[in-house]
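User: Sequence in, structure out. Go.
Assistant: Echoing your sequence, followed by the structure tokens.
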Amino acid sequence: MAQAAGVPSQVTATASNSVTVFYYTKTSNWSRYLIHYAPTGGAWTTVPGVAMEAACTDWVKRTIDLGTATGLAATFNNGSGTWDNNGGNNYALGTGTITVKDGVIAHSDPCGDGGTTPSPTPGTQATVFYSTRTVGWSTVNLHWQPAGGAWTTPPGTGMEAACPGWFKRTVDLGTATGWTATFNNGSGTWDNNNGSNYALRAGVSTVKDRVVTANAADPCAGYQPDTTAPSTPTGVAASADGVAVVLMWEPSTDNVGVTGYQITRTGGSRGTVVANTGSTVYSDANLEPNTRYAYTVRALDAAGNVSAASATASATTGEAPPVADATAPIGTDPRKDPIYFVLTARFNDGDSSNNRGGSQHVRSGNAANDDPMFRGDFKGLIQKLDYIKGLGFSAVWITPVVLNRSDYDYHGYHGWDFYRVDPRLESAGASYQDLINAAHAKGMKIYQDVVYNHSSRWGAEGLFTPTVYGVRDNQWSWYYDAKQEGFEYDGLTVDPASGKSYYNGDLWSTTEPAGNTCLNWGRPTGAFSPEGYTIYNCQWPSPTSGMFPKQYYHNCWLGNWEGEDSRSCWLHDDLADLNTESAVVQNYLIGAYNKYIDMGVDGFRVDTAVHVSRVMWNRHFLPAIYERVTRTWGADKAANFFVFGEVGAFVNDKWNRGSVNHSAQFFTWKDRQEYSADDATAVLEGYNHENNLGTGNQPTSTNAFLNGNSYHAPDHSRFSGMNIIDMRMHMNFGSAQNAFWNGKDSDDSTNDATYNVVYVDSHDYGPNKSGERYTGGTDAWAENMSLMWTFRGIPTLYYGSEIEFQAGKRIDCGPTCPLATTGRAYYGDHVAGSVTASDFGVVSSASGQVADTLQQPLAQHLQRLNQIRRAVPALQMGQYSTEGISGEMAFKRRYTDAASGVDSFALVTVTGSATYTGIPNGTYVDAVTGDRRTVTNGTLSVAAPGKGNLRVYVLDLGGANAAPGRIGTPGPYLK
């Protein structure tokens, strides 16, 4: 799309050796304001810094000469020991004009034009109102040009809040009668009217959802300023975890709406510290050890009104963990990183003391195999990171880490305490943080599986847990633990009498409790268990029993998997469906996953993403993820924080039975329409709106496709923030050719299919919704891998597939059969011994069983595929095309990056022959064989390499873009 004249090619602050920092004062209400700063590469000012001066209502400012520095780190204080240091991370500021408001940074001048506006002769005035209800911006800049005059300097002139949902600015046009404008949020996001700019006239105009209304009425006429403060936060509680404190409280209320909270911390050598958050949970990390901290919380609204301070909550930190050198996310383009997927509890056992079998240990048959369901752990995974790296993988997707509760919960998808890591996965010296740090030290990413849709059957600790499920009689004594007064479930504690893990002994009662809401409590239902035991009402979770409040949980069973109720009803009695339209639930989940973002995870795989409305993802959950990554680790890390969702569209067509709302690609897009402010209403409106538009009116994209032989800059302006697992390719991997053609068919409806996560089978299904692990044979596996590692998307492998582990075995049968006979069997025996990887896909030493595993044909195939993919940027991040190409699985890919000078062009064919026409002339070198071809007529023909084999002819462009030649040594398939 052609760029609008008013939008600079790179939206940054004006190149300058100074910065003017504006700081918002209304919510802090200090008597003095100082800025303590250090230019990039320079020294900090002397504490407490330099004074800021009054700028305009609610703002102070300071202009700082940076010399040759390109930015600065800064904190703010009142000169008397109270600090705003961005929650301990300092503020990273650039040059130009910058605002800091309640923890949010933007490029804007809130008080005027800052000298950037043209200065025509005073004359005609124009006022423009801009609606933010759809874009959701908290800061708006007006970048404009009077007819015949000059543009303002980007990002333009700050607009002022006029009333909820509207910003305004009045400008002087001099003798001009018209003007041109664009708008931006001060952080690089622009509304330039789809590249056409906005044509405005004198007088009052409004701009709403790209519609200009001239001679408009003031949309804020009659608006009475909001002067009512939110209610004071209640229920504030603090708990320490090492040198971190987790703070939680009940949501405040407001006549318009609460927009955030301000936390004030006292204690420790740093004095009083102020921080901001949008959640009702705050994770305060990197504190001093063995120190008592006290916290108060105030609620904020959009008008800057601040509640009274809450009651004080205190906590004392413990010992500091070892210094972590690699906590921060790696932050590189996720398309560079092939993914290895493990069920942590089934991969490798590094510490047998945390193994647990639960009450199903014997009945499942696991006891006979000495194979407890919780067997693998973080320690075992840390021990085998070199094995995964030696195969060539640079990202590890792990199953959920939160404390689970369902008695057969080793997989992690029955979350109970979302704020606590399951201790059955941790060991002394091998915590979750240790795993993240260890992976980062090896240049490997950790993608954490997360669940927003549901909790365990027992509810969610800290949100809602039923106090009672029902009768424990002699029949059920094997299943319901004996009640332990004062016991708090932790997943690890074992009953000395039975040797089983407590998991429900704090939830049952022999008499109906006061305040019970469950219907017909304790009465026989008339049904019996498979063993012939009497089943009682309220003995088992049910959404229709009155057991679960509507404020926290949906209250229906799912009937139509492609209907609206798949968002609003329970999938299974083990999966209590969270009411994700409830602000309390939203805050609980956002706060929980903020904790893991702060630990430095590199991305989230989102379980059951289709069962949460896209409206909720776009309104709440996805913005919260990226906002937290930005706040904790910076914008660069946030740009490559990888979120990919499981949208279970288990069909072979482009649109899931014609339902756009339940098709994978649908979730990669922002919403196109503004819905009601009430979330419960909005999700129904969103479903109906898109359903009525149908499949023929969905957005399309060329982001995955070459323009002829040329790479073009992708347009991610409508990207939701969620990428997807490529369910269509997964479903069609009965053959690689089917997967290839079906995958291609959906790419124009996906925002950017080069980010699709591609796998053959997983812990849930094989191709065509098979319940067994892939059993197509070694040659077919090799062919699948050759396609996955060269076609668009991110290749992903379920643990053990490198040796066809458990091929043809049923993936999951719950506790009705031993895990050792399933696709979730324990893998550690195959990686026993020692292994050291000197690079990705390169093993420098290996001994024991792991050495034999690495010699298997598919393991060797993977190593070389990963070496080739890593050496050819086009295979990692390139767009593709099949135009002018004959062949069954043949395509061309290119990736170009002007900033780094990379230009990579490759021709690929898998298994079969191919002819490429209309390609650039030049020398091409095959990365598999080293064969060199000179093209002078735009045509190259390649003979069939054979099943599982492939050819990757790379255009030799010389210099840094020279073809790498043959990569690696011939193996069982690449030869």
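User: And one key feature?
Assistant: Residues 614-633 form the longest helix (20 residues).
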